[in-house]
UniProtKB/TrEMBL annotation:
It comes from the Eukaryota. One of its GO terms (cellular component) is membrane. This is Solute carrier family 35 member C2. Residues 16-309 form the Sugar phosphate transporter domain. The gene is slc35c2. Keywords: Membrane, Transmembrane, Transmembrane helix. The keyword Transmembrane applies. It is a multi-pass membrane protein. Pfam families: TPT. The chain crosses the membrane at residues 12-32, 38-59, 80-97, 103-128, 135-153, 159-179, 199-216, 236-255, 267-289, 295-317. It is found in: Membrane. InterPro entries: Sugar_P_trans_dom, TPT_transporter.
Amino acid sequence: MACPVQFLCRAVRTVGLVLVYYVFSIGITFYNKWLMKGFHYPLFMTLVHLTIIFCLSTLTRSAMQCWTGKPRVMLNWTDYLTKVAPVAIATALDIGLSNWSFLFITISLYTMTKSSAVLFILFFSLVFKLEHPNPYLIVVVLLIASGLFMFTFKSTQFNLKGFIMVLLASFIGGIRWTLTQVLMQKAELGLQNPIDTMYHLQPLMFMGLFPLFLFNEGLSLSTSEKLFRVNELSPLLYTLVMLSIGGSLAFGLGFSEFLLVSKTSSLTLSIAGIFKEACTLLLAAGLMGDRMSGLNLMGFAVCVSGISLHVGLKTYYSKSKIHSLRQLPVKNSQDLEVPLLCHNEDEGEETAADDDKEQEILL
């Protein structure tokens, strides 16, 4: 059993990581919405963010290599194009469409619609056999879908174009996080560290989103006085600084998500995500003037109930899996020589929990 001091330190660490995640997640949502009011080029903004994330990831990898003295993983072209590219393209489209939708919809509608990503994650988890079907999943799907319908029904600030964009982003997000889990579970690739994952994803994400940017914003941006036809240096510097702040927030968000999962669990991230959405809706109503009816609020409550049920089910099945691991014999199989079975019980519980965290990224 862990002593009270260890338990307190772990609790403080968890709260601290959750707060850091909240700062970056809620911060970038409101920041992008604010920036979109005067800068109507969301895809270009996303490309700038990807460039900044790649640069910061490169600097961080170099610092880690100097600190540890060990070279960082570098994938060969075959693995890079066949295994990383699908994740990168799905991630780029998810982020790009999400940012694009801010031109049309409110933060509250964005937050609520984005919650439907759980449905698509469940669907693709079943397709890729990362999740086993059970009757409770039907209840989860019905609750989230019903909540989303109630929230958008007769909404006074509803925009169909923006809603479709976020819904499509959620669908692609289901593919994104499912493929991300598969990618990070491939031990031979060595991408368990979030910095290495972010470093390898950004170039392909940039190339995947660039054609869409050229088609939708290329001509308009090339004639814009905010960038290419700027007459004074100060407005250009202001725009670049604003975009750089968003890129730094995007890097912090990606790193804080992976850090929270690696230091606590995917369950902690899921629970934190539920309260984060509630905080986002409250802040949207207070700061941005988003209007929500009683039916909309009831829909949000129903949706949160579905997500909470999903989190509870994941907790139950994760504990069952760890319990099954403890019952396996180890005498005649080297494959079962995991740390759980080679140390004392307390150390084993922590190792099994850590293994489970890495195996269930955001699911």
